[in-house]
Write a structure and sequence with these properties.
The chain is an all-alpha fold. The chain has a single domain, classed as Up-down Bundle (Ferritin). Helix content is 78%, strand content 0%. The protein contains 5 helices and no strands. The protein has helices at 4-23, 26-52, 71-98, 102-132, 134-139. Helix 1 (4-23) runs antiparallel to helix 3 and helix 3 (71-98) runs antiparallel to helix 4 (102-132). The protein is elongated.
Length: 143
């Protein structure tokens, strides 16, 4: 169990959020900023659990961030990051169950649920882009 995925996601989402704000996509800015805050809460929970288990949290490791240059690319990059997180949490949950660490398993299942919801929302955005076209989609994001 580590918090590398969360720490990376915080930064990637914050950059994307600020880019959306800069481009005038207020709705996307708010949504992605809230998602970054979710990731901060996940990192905090993981750090707390690691400390409870008398470990030392590592907060200096990050995965490669993929900052998009367009809204569609940002969504695609965020989707890849969330897919990686979902896979990682499923592996960690399986391991926690094997070693009978139900506290960690429960925490990871809760975070996994949030990550799956993030992924579902990103997939919804990508589906909207595909169905209505990028320009129409972007017109729904200005507020």
């Amino acid at each position: 169990m580590n918090n590398t995925n969360e720490l990376t996601a915080i930064n990637q989402y914050m950059v994307h959020s600020k880019m959306y704000d800069n481009w005038g996509y207020g709705d996307l800015h708010k949504e992605i900023e809230e998602r970054a805050i979710d990731e901060m809460k996940h990192a905090e929970e993981l750090i707390g659990r690691i400390l409870f288990l008398e470990g030392i949290p590592v907060v200096s490791n990050y995965n490669k961030m993929y900052i998009g240059s367009t809204v569609e690319l940002m969504h695609k990059n965020d989707s890849k990051s969330e897919e990686g997180a979902v896979e990682s949490y499923n592996d960690d949950i399986k391991f926690a169950a094997e070693i009978k660490d139900n506290g960690t398993k429960t925490l990871l299942q809760s975070i996994l649920k949030d990550e799956e919801e993030h992924l579902d929302k990103i997939d919804e955005y990508l589906g909207q882009i595909e169905q209505m076209g990028l320009q129409v989609y972007l017109s729904t994001c200005i507020k």
